[in-house]
Design a protein that fits this description.
Layout lengths: L1 H39 L5 E10 L5 E11 L5 E2 L1 H11 L2 H22 L7 E5 L2 H5 L3 H12 L6 E6 H6 L1 H12 L4 E7 L6 H4 L6 E4 L1 H6 L4 H16 L3 E4 L5 H9 L4 E2 L10 H11 L4
Helix pairs in contact: 1-2, 3-5
């Protein structure tokens, strides 16, 4: 009897497990196929969207963050929050990440040739931890820049705070090697990881991105307002500039501007846009060449 019960329980457990494993495998297979066709140049499922990063002082677009989008063959949108971790675990992120990087650099080059902007537009691209750990990352990036004819200083790489803090010394060494190509760096989602403030000044990064969670609560709790203010002040002391993520209202923007936060990003300005829509936005803001 106990055995029968045990078996029944085992089967209930295994059905749930099985569904999970199957859908996870399905996702992995779909993603693998989507990446393969993207690389072949018929990228129907995968695309890169661009969200403007706006100067809070001038209101002008300073650059864009590249954000990958996936609409699978059934037409369903799958969030990067869901598939990036799968891409990480399977190693697919290396090919995917390189494709995103190349697409983004190519698009930026087109914009730079199409619009005169002073200072020049920059593109921010998220790097996953596997990508960052690649031994030949520097050569790969150098090759892409050369192929496209993009200046290194136009490209900014975003690494998360937790990635940066994992192995501080080797992270710093790697950043320095990439900065020899004139690339810029941001620390993404700042405030959500476990930064030791004593390490922060050692990171040769240009920008801190205040995590959206603080920005969205900064008008509700005095603690969050204080955290945002402290991050902005600290960044400036360390010679970095600041991007506030997830600005959704005019009053958040105004408060951040008063705190002398340099840049903002969020639905208040624009959602991430496909390339054509981002181009249309740019042409409203600037003069064509
Ligand atoms: P992230 O790098 O911090 O990107 C910002 C996320 O916040 C994006 O979500 C963006 O659409 C969203 N966002 C921007 N403004 C607002 C706002 O005002 N309100 C709200 N509610 N959300 C806003 P998304 O595109 O879903 O990406 C989520 C995360 O997935 C990213 O966080 C990043 O960690 C990862 N990710 C996205 N694209 C890529 C990529 O191309 N490569 C890698 N490695 N990771 C990526
Ligand atoms: Mg980012
Ligand atoms: Mg972020
Ligand atoms: Mg974030």
């Amino acid at each position: 009897r106990a055995k029968a019960l045990g078996k029944a329980r085992y089967e209930v457990f295994s059905v749930g497990m099985r569904t999970q494993v199957v859908s996870r495998l399905q996702l992995e297979n779909d993603l693998r196929r989507a990446i393969a066709s993207a690389i072949e140049g018929n990228s129907q499922e995968l695309s890169v969207h661009y969200q403007p990063i706006v100067s809070l002082e001038t209101g002008k677009i300073a650059g864009f963050e590249a954000l990958v989008r996936w609409q699978n063959s059934q037409g369903k949108f799958i969030s990067p929050v869901e598939f990036i971790p799968v891409a990480e675990e399977t190693g697919l992120i290396v090919t995917l990440g390189e494709w995103i990087l190349e697409q983004s650099c190519r698009q930026l080059r087109i914009w730079q040739q199409q619009f005169t902007m002073q200072p020049e537009l920059t593109i921010s691209v998220n790097l996953s931890s596997q990508q960052f750990a690649q031994p030949d990352l520097i050569e790969r990036i150098e090759q892409i820049l050369k192929k496209i004819g993009l200046n290194g200083h136009s490209l900014k790489l975003e690494i998360t705070e937790s990635m940066a803090m994992k192995d501080v010394d080797s992270t710093i060494a790697k950043i320095l090697r990439l900065k020899a190509l004139n690339l810029k760096f941001s620390i993404d989602d700042f405030g959500t990881g476990y930064s030791s403030l004593s390490y922060l000044h050692r990171f040769p990064v240009d920008t801190l991105k205040v995590d959206r969670s603080f920005v969205s609560r900064m008008e509700e709790t005095t603690e969050d307002a204080a955290i945002v203010q402290t991050i902005v002040m600290l960044s400036h002391i360390l010679g970095m500039d600041v991007i506030a993520e997830g600005i959704e209202t005019a009053s958040q923007m105004e408060k951040l501007r008063i705190l002398q936060c340099e840049y903002g990003q969020g639905y208040f300005f624009s959602k991430p846009l496909h390339a054509e829509a981002a181009t249309a936005l740019l042409s409203q803001y600037t003069n064509s060449v």
